[in-house]
Each structure stands twice: as C-alpha cells, then as structure tokens.
Specification:
Blueprint lengths: L15 H14 L6 E5 L3 H11 L5 E5 L9 H5 L5 E6 L5 H9 L5 E6 L6 H4 L1 H13 L3
Parallel strand pairs: 1-2, 2-3, 3-4
Helix pairs in contact: 1-2
C-alpha cells in the first residue's frame, strides 16, 4: 500500500478519491476485468472508496477487518450490489466488530468467522481462510 510501511509516500493517495483512482489504475495496468478484490486491514482505505463508487466493476469483494468502514453510511453500503464475503478472526476484538457492524449493510454479503484467529486471520488460520475464500469464489457468476 503506497505510503504505508517502508513504501514511499504518494501524493495521489492522500484523498479517498485519489486512492480509488490509484486502485482503478492498478486494475487497468494489470488488464483485470471484474476482479475479486480482497481487502485486509489498511487496504480498506483503497478498497472501500472503489467499492462504493465502482463496485459494479468487481465480481466480488472480500473485506478482512478493513479500516475505514465507519467513514461511510449504512445508506451508502445498501446500494452496493457486489457479492461480498466478510471475513474476520474471532480473536480480533478491535477492528473486526466495527467493520462487521458497518459492512453488514451490504445487501449481498455473507460472513465467515475464523475461530481462534486474530486480526491477520489468513495467517493464523490459512486453511480455514482458503476454504472460505474458495467456497465464495465458486459461487460467483
């Protein structure tokens, strides 16, 4: 994610609009059409603006306790028709409950809770994470 960790700051990603545009450019450069967007933690700052503005360009959305869910209203989430698999670890008592509370307004969602997993649930329980993800992917059109 530009500007996080050891990556250099990028002026474009200062605003939600800029982050959405950045992600759009990534998809274009990679030649992706109707990808499934998997969004763990900090990547929510990029994925959520894209989902809310251009969710119809995604085949699916997989938020994993993303940040930034409280920045949008229930009404904004309700208009998104993108199939969504909300994933979190039951030991993530910080971000996961807040994300679930907000993301549950997405009309086409289902939830996968990974028992015994923390915030990085895909690292804590990779087998269970992949089973949930593959099950979701198989059901997409």
């Amino acid at each position: 994610i530009p500007g996080y960790g050891d990556s250099p700051p990028v002026e474009m990603v200062v605003t939600a609009q800029g982050r959405r545009t950045f992600l759009e450019h990534v998809f274009q450069e990679l030649g992706m059409q109707r990808p499934v967007l998997v969004s763990p933690s900090m990547s929510g700052r990029f994925a959520l603006p894209f989902l809310l503005a251009q969710g119809d360009q995604l085949a699916g959305f997989v938020p994993i306790a993303p940040v930034g869910t409280k920045d949008y209203t229930a009404e904004q989430y309700r208009v998104v028709q993108t199939p969504t698999l909300i994933v979190y670890g039951d030991r993530d008592t910080g971000l996961a409950p807040q994300a679930l509370q907000n993301l549950r307004h997405l009309p086409e969602h289902r939830v996968a809770v990974l028992p015994g997993a923390g915030h990085a649930c895909y690292l804590d329980k990779p087998e269970e994470f992949h089973q949930a993800l593959l099950g979701f992917l198989r059901q997409l059109k």
